[in-house]
Design brief:
The chain has nine helices and 14 strands. Strand 13, helix 8 and strand 14 form a beta-alpha-beta unit. It has two domains: 308 residues, Rossmann fold (3-Layer(aba) Sandwich), CATH 3.40.50; 77 residues, no CATH class. The relative contact order is 0.15. The chain is 27% helix and 19% strand. It has 409 residues and is α/β, with parallel strands linked by helices.
Length: 409
């Protein structure tokens, strides 16, 4: 475990090439969240101005100008969500993305949370840095609060936040095939079996398909290989993850259903745009009972997760900014916590993501450590960890949470 105090744009440069197995991170989203300085464009705009001024001074002195880290011509005071502000955020993601690309082993994955309205900028920044964009995981939750202005007569300005997208990016392989890359570096693949969705009743079931199963569906046109073997340890991991509350809401809407028994035959025909037909015959055997959430991973939330290991720390006020004109809403006022970081991710969620893309015992890098959920998850799962955090207050919280997890593991 290595915890580093400082700005990741500088500290990442101190790490050697091809030295970490994965990057799993929850960076600033560039939306000025809760007026926090670390997520505010204003501070970074001022940094740009200082770099530009220093560069001009060096040029006048006959010295080589310093490289300005972000886009030129961007001025402080821009409203969040404008095109120029978006370009700054995209270039900033490209800057730290390049360093992550360098330190990742070939085939290593970067998983990065984002906000729905800045995800496109972040992902484009990663792509420009040299990453392959492989997928998007949707983290769906039920506890979001609408930060909407009341315009009267039922009109407002925002939807209830209920998801955060996670970019799934990969450093290009150094070898000709995925298997060769895995053999050399241990990276390049997704750990399917350790990420399968367990059956609700915890009973082992068999799943079988015809070896020469032929799909003419819209998403594939393949013939299953002869050496394919069914896996009875759980469902294939999906690119949607629900929290417990969202999972319960989904089950209330879907109702209870039961899967087919092992060895049963299911035949179906579906049409697509009236001109497309899919016919399939498959033997399936999940035979489980429950709502629709059983098809997806739903990490269990722990109420003590946030403050675990912080008994010796003082209580702090976490001020939450309500811009929706709901000043009398008791659920949107200041709250007391020992861990006062406003965006703490559940440890079990972070561990699931880590296991998905990291070889067993591998090293995980978190350039924006915040209060240490990724590091805590690494201890729980037996992974090594490098965390970088620029706020001294948060690195103390992260250290306490990680050390406590070490004691109880």
């Amino acid at each position: 475990m290595k915890l580093i105090l400082g700005d990741c744009l500088e500290k990442l440069k101190e790490l050697p090439d091809n030295s970490v197995d994965s990057v799993v991170t929850d960076p600033p989203y560039g939306i000025g969240f809760m007026n926090k300085e670390w997520d505010s464009p204003q501070k970074h705009m001022e940094l740009i101005e200082r770099e530009q001024k220093r560069s001009e001074e060096r040029f006048k002195e006959g010295k080589s100008p310093v490289k300005v880290g972000f886009s030129k011509g961007v001025q402080p005071g821009l409203k969040i969500g404008t095109a120029k502000e978006g370009k700054w955020f995209q270039q900033w993601c490209e800057e730290w993305g390049k360093e992550c690309l360098r330190v990742l082993k070939p085939g290593g994955y970067l998983l990065s949370f984002s906000a729905p309205r800045t995800y496109h900028r972040m992902t484009t920044g990663f792509e420009d840095a040299g990453f392959e964009i492989r997928d998007q995981i949707m983290w769906v939750f039920g506890s979001g609060f609408p930060k909407s202005l009341n315009l009267g007569e039922g009109w407002g300005t925002a939807l209830k936040p209920a998801h955060e997208p996670i970019c799934v990016a990969r450093k290009p392989l150094s070898e000709k095939t995925n298997k060769e890359n895995m053999s050399k570096w241990g990276t390049g693949g997704i750990n399917i079996d350790d990420s399968r969705i367990e059956y609700k009743d915890d009973k082992p079931h068999s799943v079988g398909f015809d070896n020469h199963y032929k799909s003419t569906g819209i998403y594939s046109d393949m013939e299953r290989p002869n050496d394919w073997v069914a896996n009875n340890t759980g469902r294939w991991p999906a690119n949607i993850i629900f929290d417990e509350e969202a999972g319960q809401i989904l089950d209330e809407q879907s109702g209870i259903s039961k899967g087919n028994k092992p060895g049963s035959i299911r035949k179906g025909t579906s049409n697509f745009l009236s001109n497309f037909e899919t016919k399939q015959s498959e033997r399936t055997g999940y035979n489980d009972l429950g709502g629709a959430s059983r098809f997806f991973y739903c990490p269990k939330a722990s109420k003590k997760d946030r403050d675990e290991g912080m008994d010796l720390h003082d209580d702090k006020i976490l001020n939450r900014v309500n811009s929706g004109g709901l000043e009398n809403d008791p659920t949107w006022g200041p709250i007391v916590r020992k861990n006062n970081h406003p965006t703490v991710k559940p440890t079990e969620l972070m561990l699931y993501l880590i296991k998905l893309v990291t070889p067993k015992g591998g090293t995980v890098l978190e350039p924006f450590m915040d209060s240490g959920s990724t590091g805590k998850a690494c201890v729980r799962g037996g992974f090594d960890f490098i965390g970088i955090e620029k706020e001294e207050e948060y690195i103390k919280i992260a250290k306490a949470r990680i050390e406590n997890e070490n004691r109880i593991s």
